[in-house]
Amino acid sequence: MKKSLSTTPYSLLDLATVIQGKKPADTFKTSLDLAQHVEGWGYNRYWLAEHHNMISVASSATSVVIGHIAAGTKTMRVGSGGIMLPNHSPLVIAEQFGTLESLFPGRIDLGLGRAPGTDQVTAMAIRGEPRLQSAMSFPQDVKKLQQYFSAENSSSSVRAVPGEGLDIPIWILGSSTDSAHLAASMGLPYAFASHFAPAQFITAINIYRQNFRPSQYLDKPYVLACVNVVAADTDGEANKLATSLYQLFKGVITGKRELLPPPVDSMEGILSDYEEEQLNQMLACTFIGSKATVQQDLQQFLEQTQVDEIMASSHIYDHPARLRSYEILAEVFTG
Fold first, then answer.
1. Could you list the residue range(s) of the whole structural domain that residue 125 is in?
2. Half-sphere exposure of 108 toward its Cβ, with a 13 Å CA cutoff?
3. Which CATH number goes with the domain that contains 58?
4. Which residues form the Luciferase-like domain (predicted)?
5. Which uninterrupted H or E stretch holds 147?
6. For the chain, how far is it from start to end, CA to CA, in angstroms?
7. Residue 233 burial by CB count (10 A; 0-12/13-18/19+): exposed, middle or buried?
């Protein structure tokens, strides 16, 4: 059956990017303004991601920022894409998201990842134990979370209050086939990080669909793909705006992370051949251009992947230009 953008939910991943010349406080203001705009444009979800020790990402206290966004919006779902569960005890996350769900009923999502969202030294500083051990316990920790959220846990000696008995959708996030097997075996929705790690995307979602076991949470597979989108009124303008994204990802490749820089007229001389090759691989699921261009390319992507929902991340330096990009993207889905 042919899928259509017009019947596909569309959502947003905000990496709470700090731009050059600004501070995290500025990011939180623009994020809320963005959330209020996209809610009016029909976006389904607004997710924030947990990262640590990165000067360009302000969402380290992810649950707090989720509360900030949820408090300033009314209907849109708000959640984590994701909480890096090995950094936390399941009980603390159950309490935090139980609190969020109690404050904003029916609007909170809990996406979970097994990566640390940072470097190994910082991971040790967060958790104080070997990363390997906590990452290996990820499936058991997800089950503990489910137990804390269940009404049946009321007879347990350890309870999540608030949290117990609340319906908080849990998602498995991933960038590899390991996460696909886990999401399938647990019967949970699956969100793939194709916006920066597309290499195993098709293989992973096929594994997920083929091995999916219906659960009390979900009766059939549900795949959300996160992609990069930079849209503007013309292809030329979008291509220039995208140079901020390219420069940011150069920092990821080289390990020399910087604040999001302004766009440049040309990337010539900025990337080495190796960096350009790595950039092209990482940004394979990136859609840049005018409404017509993005619409055509996203429709092709949808037909190829048959995903159930598309989530967009947009690293754009100028806030009005970022708003315009998300407005154009909404028009792509709504016609």
1. 5-334
2. 27
3. 3.20.20.30
4. 24-307
5. helix 138-149
6. 20
7. exposed
Report the alpha-carbon distance of residue 148 to residue 145 in Å, rounded. Answer: 5
**Residue 195 per-residue DSSP state:** T
Whole-number Å distance between alpha carbons of 305 and 227: 12
pLDDT (tens digit per residue) in 85-129: 989 999 999 999 999 999 999 999 999 999 766 677 777 787 776
- CA-wise closest residue to 263 among 316, 314, 313: 316
Confidence category of residue 335, pLDDT binned at 50, 70, 90 = confident
What is the per-residue burial (b if ≥16 Cβ within 10 Å, else e) of 120-131? eebbeebbeeeb
What is the b/e burial string over 199-228, where b = at least 16 CB atoms within 10 angstroms of the residue's CB? ebbeebbebbbeebeeeeebeebbbbbbbb
334 and 34 Cβ atoms separated by less than 8 Å: no
Structure tokens that stand for 205 in this block: 């979602």
Q: How far is 101 from 139, CA to CA, in rounded Å?
A: 23
Residues 6+ apart with CB under 8 A from 206: none
* Nearest partner of 290 among 231, 243, 241, 333, judged by Cα: 231
Total domains present in the chain: 1
Asked whether the beta carbons of 112 and 171 are under 8 A apart, the reply is yes
Two tokens at 264? Answer: 């440049």
pLDDT digits (tens, 9 = 90+) for 200-221: 999 999 999 999 999 999 999 9
SS3 88: coil
Pairwise CA distance, residues 243 & 251, whole Å: 13
Q: How high is the pLDDT of residue 10?
A: 98
- Element of type H or E holding 166: none
DSSP 259: P
- Residue 8 carries which side chain, given as an amino acid letter? T
Q: How far, in Å, CA of 210 to CA of 191, rounded?
A: 16
Amino acid of residue 181: H
CA distance 239 to 288: 6
